[in-house]
Specification:
With 258 residues, this protein is mainly α. It contains seven helices and four strands, in the order ααααββββααα. The chain is 71% helix and 5% strand.
Length: 258
Amino acid sequence: MSAVGSIGGYSPMSNYYQSLSSGSKINSAKDGASELAILEKQDSQVRGYDAGSGNLEAGKSLANISDGALGSINDSLQRMKELGVKASNGLLSNDDKKAIQSEIDQLKQGITDITSSTNYNGINLLDGSRGNINIVSDGNGANQSVSGSNATLEALGIADFDVTKSFDLKDVDNAIEKVNSMRGGVGASTNGIDYSLYYNSSAAQNLTAAKSRTGDTEMEEYASKLQKDQTMETYKLMMQKKQMENDVASGQRLFFSI
């Protein structure tokens, strides 16, 4: 029926068909220029939040890698502290102290290996080569940062720690405090990232709901309107047919009356 009504290139029901099939009542500017502009802006914002959340998830992975590596370094330092206390015993011989230092040297080498190899996507995390790493968290340019760390032996102050010579256990204690401080910074960054992820998720959901209210087709309403227009179209065709029949009958009467 709508094909007849569309003679001339336009059907009053075409919008209903398009809205019902697409699920959106705003499919072009002719359906509502201001509404379309609002929908496009909201869509851009949602995409920005989603992209930012992807960045934040990557930043969280980076922070977790950094924290895990610092935890391993802390374990090594705690063992060094135990060995240092043991080496402080005046009953040990020089050979005993050399044996203890051999294990300490292995622990120091392990720390060096961790600081040189811990990275995320090629970014070194613990060797002091990077400061804070900024992470763009949404399309508005907001950002979070993950604290850079320097856990090298030199930065920790234990590069020359040697129990076969004069040594001070406070050097190891200070190193442990530095590592704990680094982990605290990483933990604070992770908390900030978690907050931003929650905010992005809530903002994206709210904007998506707003988009739905503005642009989604009310299926029952549009189906009802379509049915009403189809009924009216049928009625118009019936009236047109009746008018044509009346015109033919009038013409025939006129012809036979001549």
